[in-house]
């Protein structure tokens, strides 16, 4: 059944668990995530970026979500717009059946320029007012996502800023967060603690200097009733990097967010954990491994089936580690 982010995260807070929010662009990801949810009895958040919506098309995505609901009737499913950049993006998502939207006003609509507080609170508050009229939930973001190692500098996948940002812009301020939540009435708040999107988050295993988990504790103390969201939360597992690199892939040494740090966040108010890269990496690594091993094969299902199994394995591990398992 389809549920809102608010309904799901209220339950997660009551029972002290976190929910991974997996990005989805295609059928294989959808089936892989829901198989893991069924195996572990976990509720799910399926989130589509603007890129996902233009890749698959709104109708295909909406009908696919419907199909997943019919196939997995016992699983509560929240359908969420990831990183909406305008009011129109958020409203058209709701028109397409999404039960939740993120209005990311931490950046201006160019997706590169850090926005000021007034712009962010204004546009997020507007989306919040409109979405709540029709029963949809809203996630806002305060602080800019980006690496504390490089000052938010250009990530390899094009995410990131031109030039560098102050450390202060890359860390959410607790007092400002309290004001933002009060003014915008968001249901969940994405915070900046040093994580970034993509595979290249940290050049070594992250410590407190580059991954500010202590800030999560301070934010939760200030905002005990606000559901916190961690973006850029892929762990970029070494074992999948190894499979990828052993089958012709080229990924240089990199570290993600350790699962145990996320678990620590979940003990302090983190309820939604965004993961895209880990499923991309596991599926492509497996796809490559099979392709490398059978060069005459040209039936895509022979590659995609193992890729789905790899994604299901990653999802199952996260549902178990985050305590989502058993809460469908
Ligand atoms: O925001 C980052 C997510 O991983 C979505 O990425 O915009 O390439 O679909 P995308
Ligand atoms: P990763 O790139 O770490 O998977 O983060 C995804 C994300 O935050 C989507 O909004
Ligand atoms: Zn994100």
Automatic annotation (TrEMBL):
Alphabetized Gene3D superfamilies for the sequence: Aldolase class I
Coiled coil: none
Top-rank lineage group of the source organism: Bacteria
Catalysis performed (reactions): beta-D-fructose 1,6-bisphosphate = D-glyceraldehyde 3-phosphate + dihydroxyacetone phosphate
Family in the record: Belongs to the class II fructose-bisphosphate aldolase family.
Name this protein carries in UniProt: Fructose-1,6-bisphosphate aldolase
The organism of origin for this protein: Amaricoccus macauensis
Residues engaged in binding dihydroxyacetone phosphate: 198, 232-234, 274-277
Amino acids binding Zn(2+) 1: 83, 197, 231
InterPro entries: Aldolase_TIM, Class_II_FBP_aldolase, FBA_II, Fruct_bisP_Calv
A GO term, aspect molecular function: zinc ion binding
Pathways per UniProt: Carbohydrate degradation; glycolysis; D-glyceraldehyde 3-phosphate and glycerone phosphate from D-glucose: step 4/4; Carbohydrate biosynthesis; Calvin cycle
Function: Catalyzes the aldol condensation of dihydroxyacetone phosphate (DHAP or glycerone-phosphate) with glyceraldehyde 3-phosphate (G3P) to form fructose 1,6-bisphosphate (FBP) in gluconeogenesis and the reverse reaction in glycolysis.
Catalytic residues, chain numbering: 82 (proton donor)
GO BP annotations, alphabetical order: glycolytic process; reductive pentose-phosphate cycle
Keyword field: Calvin cycle, Glycolysis, Lyase, Metal-binding, Zinc
EC numbers, comma separated: 4.1.2.13
Pfam families xrefs: F_bP_aldolase
Residues that, per the record, bind Zn(2+) 2: 104, 141
Enzyme class: lyase
């Amino acid at each position: 059944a389809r549920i809102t982010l608010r309904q799901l995260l209220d339950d997660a807070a009551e029972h002290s668990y976190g929910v991974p929010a997996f990005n989805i662009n295609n059928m294989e990801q959808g089936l892989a995530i829901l198989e893991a949810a069924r195996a572990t009895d976990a509720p799910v958040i399926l989130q589509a970026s603007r890129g996902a919506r233009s890749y698959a098309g709104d109708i295909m995505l909406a009908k696919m979500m419907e199909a997943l609901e019919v196939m997995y009737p016992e699983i509560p499913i929240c359908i969420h717009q990831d990183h909406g950049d305008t009011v129109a993006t958020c409203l058209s998502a709701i028109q397409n059946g999404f039960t939740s939207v993120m209005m990311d006003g931490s950046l201006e609509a160019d997706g590169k320029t850090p926005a000021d507080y007034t712009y962010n609170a204004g546009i997020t508050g507007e989306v919040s007012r409109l979405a709540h009229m029709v029963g949809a939930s809203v996630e806002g973001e305060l602080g800019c996502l980006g690496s504390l190692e490089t000052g938010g500098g250009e990530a390899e996948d094009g995410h990131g800023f031109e030039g560098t940002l102050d450390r202060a812009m890359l860390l959410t301020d607790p007092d400002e967060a309290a004001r933002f939540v009060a003014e915008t009435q968001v249901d969940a708040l994405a915070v900046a603690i040093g994580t970034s999107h993509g595979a290249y988050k940290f050049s070594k295993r992250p410590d407190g200097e580059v991954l500010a988990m202590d800030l999560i504790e301070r934010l939760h103390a200030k905002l005990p009733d606000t559901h916190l969201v961690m973006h850029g939360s892929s762990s970029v597992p070494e074992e999948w990097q190894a499979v990828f690199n052993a089958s012709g892939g080229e990924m240089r040494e990199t570290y993600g967010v350790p699962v145990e740090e996320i678990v620590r966040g979940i003990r302090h108010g983190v309820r939604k954990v965004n993961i895209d890269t880990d499923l991309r990496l596991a599926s492509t690594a497996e796809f490559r491994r099979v392709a490398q091993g059978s060069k005459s094969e040209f039936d895509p299902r022979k590659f995609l089936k193992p890729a789905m199994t790899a994604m299901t394995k990653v999802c199952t591990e996260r549902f178990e580690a985050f305590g989502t398992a058993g809460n469908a």
